[in-house]
Design a protein that fits this description.
400 residues, alpha/beta, six-stranded antiparallel beta sheet, 13 helices, 16 strands, 34% helix, globular
C-alpha cells in the first residue's frame, strides 16, 4: 500500500468505525454528550439521527469504549426483527439463551434481570443502531421496556441511533407515547467546509503525518464539494486519491490525483445527489436577533439521576433558588434562597453563584462564574443541571 510512500503507520481513511480516528466536530461532540447523559440521568432515553456515513456508529463505539465497569450494555445492530426476536436478541446480549422461551418468559426474564442489576448498583444500557429499520411493533416493545422501573428509578437506559427515517417514525401518531418518553433528540449533520479540512488533517495526524502536508491546499474545496462533508464519503475519496498519488510515485496528493480518483469512482453525478447532506450555509451575523420564540438553549434539572424539570433558555436572566420568587424554584434545604443565576445572551450563556451557602460545582470544582458549554453538568446542592446549547453552529469567518 501507500503507507511507506507517505510515511504513515496506519491507514488514515478506513471505512470501518475506529474510535481512535474520531473527529469531534461541534455536532459530533454534542451527540456524544447526549449519549453520555443516559448514564448521568436515570431516565436517559436519547435518539441520535444522521445521514448514512455521518459518523453515528463511530460515535457509539467511542462512547462504549469510555464506559465505566458498572454499566451493563446490550448493543443491537441487526434491526429487521420481529418483536419476540428483538426481545430475545436483547437477552442474548445480556448473556441468556432465550430461543426456546415464549414471549411472556422473555419479558419476565428481562424484567427480573433489570431489577437484579439495579439492586446491585449497576446501570443497564440498551443501544440500537440502524433503528430506522425497527417496525412499529418493535418500537412499541422498546417503549414498554423503557417503562420498567422501581418505586423511584427507571431500570433501563436507551439510545436509538438511525437514519432520518427514524424521526419520521417517531413523529407518527402511532408512536406518540414512545416519543413522550424520549429525553433528548439530536440530528447529526454533515461537516462544514472548515470542518471537512480539519477532519482530513486530523485523520492524517492520527495515522502519523506529524504535521506534514499530504493533501495540497487546493484539494480541500473539491473534497468538500464532492462529498458534501459526509465523513464516509470523505474517507472513500481521500483513500482513492492517495492511491492515485501512490501510482504516480508522489507523496503529495494534488488536484490531478483528486480528479483521477473522481473518474475512478464516477462521482460526478453522485456529488449532485449528495448536496442535501451538506452542512447548512453560514448563519446570519452574531449581532442579528435570534428567531422569534426559538430558545438559545435549555437546562435539565435532575435529582438522584432523575430529570425533574426541563426549562428553555431565552435571552435574559433566570434565577434559581429555594423560594417561590425565583424563576426556577428548587425546594431543598441545600439550596439558598437565591442560589445562582443563568444569564443567556445571543452568543454565550453563563451560570453565576449568588453568594450561596453550598455553592455551585463544575467537574467537582467550586466555581464563582462559569461559561456554559454544550453538555456541561453543574452540581447545585443535591441536584444537577445539564446545559444544552440550541444555537446553530457558527462558521468561522475568513479572518479566523
Amino acid at each position: 500500500m501507500y503507507l511507506e510512500l507517505f510515511k504513515l503507520h496506519d491507514l488514515p481513511f478506513r471505512l470501518s468505525p475506529d474510535p481512535q480516528f474520531l473527529y469531534l466536530s461541534k455536532h459530533h461532540a454534542r451527540a456524544k454528550a447526549y449519549m453520555e447523559s443516559t448514564i448521568w440521568f436515570n431516565d436517559g432515553f436519547v435518539v441520535i439521527t444522521g445521514e448514512i456515513g455521518a459518523g453515528k456508529t463511530t460515535l457509539i463505539e467511542t462512547f462504549l469504549r469510555e464506559l465505566q465497569g458498572d454499566v451493563v450494555v446490550a448493543q443491537i445492530n441487526q434491526t429487521q426483527l420481529s418483536p419476540t426476536a428483538f426481545l430475545q436478541t436483547v437477552l442474548v446480549q445480556f448473556g441468556f439463551s432465550p430461543f426456546n422461551m415464549r414471549k411472556p418468559e422473555v419479558l419476565s426474564t428481562l424484567n427480573q434481570f433489570l431489577m437484579e442489576q439495579h439492586a446491585a448498583g449497576r446501570k443497564v444500557l440498551l443501544i440500537v443502531d440502524e433503528a430506522q429499520n425497527l417496525s412499529y411493533r418493535v418500537l412499541e416493545e422498546v417503549r414498554m421496556l423503557s417503562g420498567i422501573e422501581t418505586a423511584r428509578d427507571k431500570t433501563l437506559r436507551i439510545i436509538l441511533a438511525g437514519q432520518p427515517e427514524l424521526n419520521d417514525k417517531l413523529d407518527s401518531a402511532e408512536l406518540r407515547q414512545l416519543t413522550q418518553r424520549v429525553r433528548l433528540r439530536f440530528h447529526l449533520t454533515a461537516l462544514s467546509p472548515a470542518e471537512t479540512t480539519a477532519y482530513v488533517d486530523h485523520r492524517l495526524e492520527v495515522a502519523g503525518s506529524q504535521g506534514r502536508r499530504i493533501f495540497a491546499e487546493e484539494t480541500y474545496p473539491t473534497i468538500y464539494q464532492q462529498t458534501g462533508g459526509v465523513p464516509r464519503l470523505i474517507n472513500t475519496l481521500c483513500d482513492t486519491a492517495m492511491m492515485a498519488a501512490f501510482g504516480s510515485d508522489r507523496d503529495l496528493v494534488t488536484a490531478e490525483d483528486l480528479q483521477a480518483a473522481l473518474r475512478e469512482l464516477q462521482w460526478e453525478e453522485h456529488a449532485s445527489r449528495t448536496s442535501r447532506l451538506r452542512a447548512a450555509p453560514t448563519p446570519a451575523r452574531a449581532d442579528s436577533a435570534p428567531t422569534t420564540g426559538q430558545p438559545l438553549g435549555r437546562i435539565l434539572l435532575a435529582s438522584e439521576g432523575r430529570t425533574v424539570i426541563e426549562r428553555e433558555l431565552h435571552p435574559g436572566r433566570l434565577v434559581i433558588g429555594r423560594t417561590p420568587d425565583n424563576d426556577l424554584q428548587i425546594d431543598s434545604k441545600y439550596i439558598s434562597r437565591h442560589h445562582c443565576q443563568i444569564v443567556t445572551q445571543r452568543d454565550a450563556c453563563t451560570i453565576e453563584d449568588l453568594n450561596s451557602t453550598n455553592g455551585i460545582y463544575v467537574q467537582s470544582r467550586r466555581v464563582r462564574k462559569h461559561h456554559l458549554n454544550d453538555g456541561d453538568v453543574v452540581q447545585i446542592g443535591q441536584h444537577e443541571i445539564m446545559y444544552v446549547d440550541e444555537r446553530p453552529p457558527r462558521e468561522p469567518s475568513a479572518a479566523e
